[in-house]
Amino acid sequence: MGLESLEILNLEHNDLIPKKGFPLNIFSSLLNLTSLLLVQEQSLRNASFPDVRRLTNLTKLSLDTVDVVVSMGEEFKELKVLSSLTLSGSAKIIGNHSFINVPHLRELRLIELDQLTELDTQALVHLKHLNRLEINSSPVGVKKTMRALEPLQKTNMAVIFFRQLFSTSRNQAPDMISQNGILDRNKTKHLLDICVREFTLTDSHIYVITFDALVSETWQRCLKFIDLSENPLKGTVMAFARLLTMRNLEVIFVRNCLRSSGKNTLIPDKLTAARSQSQVNECRSESSKINHSEAGNNRVQRVLFGPDHSSGIFVYVSDSLHFIDISNCITSGKLDISVTFRGAQNLFFLDLSDNGFERFTGAVSGFYGFKTFLLTGNDLEKLSSTFFDTCQSLEYVDLTNTNLNPDFFCSSSERLFQKLTKLKKLSLDGNSLTLLSPNTFSSNRQITHLLLAGNRFNHVPFNLKNTPELQVLDLQNNAIVSLDQETTGNLDQLAVDSDGFQLKLGGNVMLCVCESFHYLYWLGHTSVILDRDGNYSCINNDRVLSHTKAFADPIAMWRQCSGQFYFSVSIFLFCTLIIGFLTTLVITRNKTFILSSLLQMFTKFKVLKSKDYKIGVFIGYADRDYVFACTDLRQYIENTLVLTTYLQDRDLLPTFDMAQGIVEAINSSWRILLVVNRTFLNDDHWSLFTMKSAVYALTPTNPDRVVVLVDRQLLSSLPADLLSSVPEDNIITVSRWEMTYRLREMLRTRLL
């Protein structure tokens, strides 16, 4: 076939297996093969393995099992250098003699053996050189898997990887009944006698880890990496605590433990209250014994979550720890006390994302090389301005979606980050912030990445001269309509200094008007790297949604803006002369009549009426809370007031652009009625756009056009431009969303 020199053949994850399996001698001529990968999408029973006995150079092999019992037959004896074997398929049993003919294996992977229910205790007895063991997506269960590790005791291994060992994918209860969901010393006794460097047990329906399940002298000496993620752990805080003190452990992953319902108690609700005094004394006593038995070793072999009333809480960890990820595993906890880590001088990464921590008014100290601190998804509404003072080595802080208090950041954001002089990356995404305090980041001269997306900034909220090393500024999905000349000049200077400065402005609806001429010109000519190629949505003078690239021609823009100005000046001078001349003639006769006639004659001024509009009332409401607006309110307006209504869920065509549809509907409506509830104000993606479009629709020809129906508790949360543009009489507050007599009368007087 011309393939005699082929060394690697990968046919995995196809649909190549005939009904009776591969032909027996199909690979016999490929004598130089070192890697043969044959696992398919579907496997067959009672088929046969291809003959591989002539492939004596084979070092890596993957196969689908073809029998109920895994059996590597006599033909595999010839594969003296085979070091890696991967098995998949429909086998149900791995027996004591399954691997007797492949004793030289260093890597064994059992992948997606989705019917495997038996793993004999001596199944691995012949694999004396095994260095890596992986069992993935096989329902053999934790109990039988751990028992099968007995032959590997007293051996050295690099990796033991277990994932999805549960007996069923739908009902987790059997794992508790069969004890597969409980990890105790009786199950792990063989595992703990293996000198393994990396151990993973994820997504295997482990509910409980007992105090002594994961600690042994062998693991104290050998283990450097452990991952227990995606198990619905329900308790046993001390089992986790002992991991933190393992002598050579460097990396800990315990992520996503909150997948099932019910409260997870991996870490106590309140660190100062979760442990009884007797537990504290017991831990201290055992720590003293360990210290006494290891003379000269100053490392504390316990984590104490007990209180020290004079100085808060001390948490003792191993000085070998570098990386801890405990994200989405804790339902609640208050950091309103001092927490001091002892032995954490080498820890550089701590991920506490998506946990239930709140009240960050205490202090966390003891970190000397701490570089990354992730707090995404916690509740930082109550945050002390000195919280980060004890973590001065931090380079990356992630506060995304942490419910930060806008008022606190208006006054204290400078102080909050003042001590983080080495900070390089900060994320404040998704916090609805409006302002930062003056001179924020003045102490963070090394910062390179600032992520401020998903807030309510209408300008760059800090002095760009304070961040000379800035490389990325993310202001997506804020309230920016334009940037002033000073800001754009500073941005250009950053682009020159950093050689590749990036600015992200997507999601902001700009103003493409003459007042933004400088900004629109800058977007098309700056050396700053802009997202979306510098083309953003904007609203033009006609209140029509457009895009900034349409205004990229500076000459045409200048003519449009200047021509309007000079034309207005000419009209003004002409009208002034005519009015002055006529006034001189007849002012003494009928002053009131003349003034009225002049206004109608020369300014073409008239007040529009409802018949001048195609739509009676535009109703703006939240997509997710439409019941009141689309039923009671609509019926009253249409049936009682006899006015037509516009509802976006009813009247907006599916193929029509949402923004353009809103703008055109508003421009065609006699009255604009905004139903402002909490959902509309906080969660609706189009609420800000709708309110701004309503404000732009106000003209002298229809000054009472906008009516706001708002929850009484949300009145102070309305945008300032809406409050300043809408007459006070047109803002109706309600305590409950019902068509009361008062509400009907107020709507009648304002909509007709």
From TrEMBL:
It is found in: Membrane. One of its GO terms (biological process) is signal transduction. Coiled coil: none annotated. GO terms for cellular component: plasma membrane. It comes from the Eukaryota. It holds the Pfam family LRR_8. The keyword Transmembrane helix applies. Keywords: Glycoprotein, Leucine-rich repeat, Membrane, Receptor, Repeat, Signal, Transmembrane, Transmembrane helix. SMART domains: LRR_TYP. The keyword Repeat applies. Residues 613-747 form the TIR domain. GO terms for molecular function: signaling receptor activity. The chain crosses the membrane at residues 565-587. It is a single-pass membrane protein. Belongs to the Toll-like receptor family. This is TIR domain-containing protein. The lineage of its organism: Eukaryota, Metazoa, Spiralia, Lophotrochozoa, Mollusca.
